[in-house]
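hi support,

uploading two proteins for the ticket. first:
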Amino acid sequence: MNSVVELREVKPGIALLTMQDRENKNTFTNEFLLGIKDAFEEVKHNTKFKVLVITGYDNYFASGGTKDALIAIQEGKANFDKISPGIPNIYSLPLDCEIPVVAAVQGHAIGGGLAFALFSDFIILSKESVYTANFMNFGFTPGFGSTYIFPAKLGITLAKDILISARKFRGEELRKRGIPFEVYPRKEVLGQALELAEIIAEKPRLSLITLKNQLVKEHRNAISEVIKQEVQMHDITFHQPEVKENIQKLYIDPRQA
């Protein structure tokens, strides 16, 4: 693993992936994306692992795309599914992972960072943290599979609110809106996720893989077409002049926040 991503076995059969790019507050830099990809590759090839827990550091889970990446898409030099040669996208890695994935979303999850969490099999949120799909605040339609996974995991009514309004929600607010996830104080989130992981790890690995494959088959079959549709929507919405203006004006550099 690289310096911004750590993968380790914390108990027999339980892998813990910690995202910890403190300089960039877990935005999707090239180093961050490559680190996540390498971690999932290790999980794929390590047959000791039965369950993967993903978490961030301090107040941050994952903060979505960098300003440079957004500008590159706006200028037609990239799209969110093909950022640059050799740089992977990570949105559906938890979905594609053979073993169950638990997202311990102890900190803020923004844009693609929130979509990344929602592709996990189990999601635990923090009461205090901010969760937002802020794509439309910049003026472009959502990407990272958000138009599929938000309705699938949250229900269409709440998904429309989050995606269209692009408002910020605390975990406690989402709990009151009836989300189907557990919500705890931030300091308890990882512990609760690891407790769940221990229960999962009691089961045979082959049985876990077989059952997950059945349960997520519909999502896996649907996502490639959804990504194509989202890229097509970006071709319509991303290149508006006001989008570039909004990115320049509204994007907050995490190193200066």
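and the second one:
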Amino acid sequence: MRVLVVGGAGYIGSHICKALAERGDTPIVLDNLSRGHRHAVKWGPLIEQDVRNVSAVTQAMSDQGIDAVMHFAANIEVGEGQREPLAFWDNNVAGVVALLKAMERSDVLHLVFSSTCAVYGEPQTLPITEDEPRTPVNVYGQTKHVVELMLEDVSSRGALKYAALRYFNAAGASPDGEIGEEYDPETHLVPNALKAAAGLGGPMHLFGDDYDTPDGTCVRDFIHVMDLAQAHLKALDRLRQGADSFACNLGTGTGISVKEILDAVETVTGRPVPPTLSPRRPGDAAQLVSDTRLARELLNFSPIYSDAKTIIEHAWSFYARRWGLHPS
């Protein structure tokens, strides 16, 4: 297949491109490089363009003979969304509207959409199933929820078939250390813990240690980025084989606490990660863990890299190379 990967110069998108190429497909990256990285586009052509330019995206689909689309071009940092909501609505929602127009004009019928567990908001039950009410509590989750509603409407009235994949906590890097997470500013736990272990940047902030969890720190469902990539390929294949549109969680079903991640970083790197205790952040739930039954049923998906030690090892290999260090 020739797959248009919108936002393919970013963290998850670049790993998707790597996985597509490794199985013989051709990823064509469409990215305006506002947050992605030119050097992360390694497995196919780069079309440097904004997804909101309908005519340019339509032309790219025609020129490249696109068979299907995967979408990752979104603003994701929760705090930024609260400060700059209009930018999130413009990119995360208007960008998908434009993409769907281009797909319709080009008769491209299959879309894998990067969604998030943030569509659920504060969960009423654990683990979180796909039947959990979608009541997002921040702008990021709201924009993803609205896109899911839009996809439901468009799909019900036309030929479009989509998969909305609700990630939990993506982490790690490609096992060979070739690509990894490169956000700026970086707000995610694993890279910031590794920075602290390497003596780079400021202290490692621990946002609350008094949650109702076994060790007092938040518990999250961490899924390795290459496991995510394989799930995307399986979702695309399911659509191409004639399945109806669907939404499902992508996680492991196992919670890992912030303290357990910090302990794993110390074990892998051989370096201490002394945290600085900071107040809880508004909206941080004590636990977010996925129910994985639907992903197993629909996609025959089981993560293989998503234990804490492997996630940290792969991320450390990437960052050690990038920072000129030598992992222990």
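thanks. also noticed: The chain has ten helices and 14 strands.
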